[in-house]
Automatic annotation (TrEMBL):
It comes from the Bacteria. InterPro entries: FecR, FecR_C, Ferrdict_sens_TM. This is FecR family protein. Residues 116-204 form the FecR protein domain. It comes from Arcticibacterium luteifluviistationis. One of its GO terms (molecular function) is sigma factor antagonist activity. PANTHER family: PERIPLASMIC SIGNAL SENSOR AND SIGMA FACTOR ACTIVATOR FECR-RELATED, PROTEIN FECR. Residues 258-325 form the Protein FecR C-terminal domain. Keywords: Membrane, Transmembrane, Transmembrane helix. The chain crosses the membrane at residues 72-90.
């Protein structure tokens, strides 16, 4: 049977349209596969390829149709065989590549946190990864030699050791996060099909892996207290502000600069921008000179904004990573 014929039969089987004879053939084939030797795969390659294959298979499934255990077992075998077929027949993987995958069978490293608390891991380059529960980090044994590249399943906080010659790259589904040296959190929610990236320090480049180009025009650059949400269904990347922005300057500086006595609004917001690294825009010029008297120490940024706006009968709204102040004036 040719690869095309097997693919066609597999699609029929997954759609529930095969005859008894075809079902019997696939059942016998599945038993035979258990005795065959599998092609060794690098964990990273296996994870990436298997993800794409299952994604394509799932598109063709009727969600209302219930699979028996036997059918599901055979379906798993089909996915595995399609994975092997991809390796053998893909024009992008020549014999040299296949040999490399075979040699790297034991070079793929997967770290999984099965505990009920976060676990810290130090990578060879000095990067610290705080892996959340039920999350996994996959990387090659050549990590830190020619490149720094990892695959994340779940959630993790990264404190990346700076290296301007080798960016640190995190693959999460179809989203790629690339940095030189910074700290950030990546969260992948499979139920909502969304990936979130929050930056604590430094700059982070985030882009859609499927649409990436050499200059990554489809991506965004985010800075501390900013985040992006990538929707895997619509493939949209939305830039915004983290739920609780943290001061980016020393605590003693924050305490000494958050007490205002009859200070114009534009100067108050300028001070908050320095502290949090967030842009504020006053929509109405009549608000610029409205005087603010307030003690904003030990309050979250959004609580500070609420108090400021309440004191001058105005309001604020967030658009992306910018906060706009609206009002008639004072």
């Amino acid at each position: 049977m040719t690869l095309k014929e097997f693919n066609d039969l597999s699609k029929k089987y997954l759609a529930g349209n095969t005859s008894e004879e075809e079902d019997r053939f696939l059942s016998e084939w599945q038993e035979q596969q258990q005795n065959d030797e599998e092609l060794p795969l690098n964990k990273i390659e296996e994870f990436a390829m298997e993800k794409r294959i299952w994604k394509n298979i799932n598109k063709g499934l009727n969600q209302e149709k219930l699979f028996t255990l036997k059918r599901l077992f055979i379906a798993s075998g089909i996915a595995a065989t399609l994975l092997l077929a991809f390796i053998y027949f893909s024009p992008d993987l020549n014999s040299t590549k296949a040999t490399q995958l075979s040699e790297n069978k034991r070079q793929g490293i997967e770290l999984t946190n099965t505990s009920s608390k976060k676990e810290k891991v130090k990578l060879e380059d000095g990067t610290i990864v705080e892996l959340s529960e039920n999350s996994s980090l996959i990387y090659g044994k050549d990590f830190n030699k020619s490149k720094r590249e990892v695959y994340l399943k779940g959630e993790a906080f990264f404190n990346v050791e700076r290296d301007v010659t080798r960016p640190f790259i995190v693959h999460t589904g179809d989203l790629t996060t690339e940095v030189l040296g910074t700290s950030f959190k990546v969260r992948h929610n499979k139920k909502t099909h969304k990936v979130e990236v929050e930056v604590a320090s430094g700059k982070v480049s985030v882009y859609n892996e499927k649409k990436s180009t050499k200059n990554k025009k489809n991506g965004v650059i985010i800075t501390p207290n900013q985040k992006v949400v990538f929707d895997e269904v619509s493939e949209n990347i939305e830039q915004s502000i983290v739920s609780n922005p943290k001061p980016l300057v020393k605590e003693e500086i924050v305490a000494s600069t958050l007490v205002f006595t009859s200070i114009p609004l534009n100067k108050v917001l300028s001070q908050l921008s320095v502290i949090y690294g967030i842009d504020f825009v006053i929509n109405n010029s009549k608000l610029q000179e409205c005087k603010i008297t307030a003690d904003l120490k030990d309050l979250t940024m959004f609580t500070q904004l609420e108090l400021i706006c309440k004191s001058i009968d105005s309001s604020y709204e967030q658009r992306g990573s910018v906060i706009f102040i609206n009002g008639e004036g004072c």
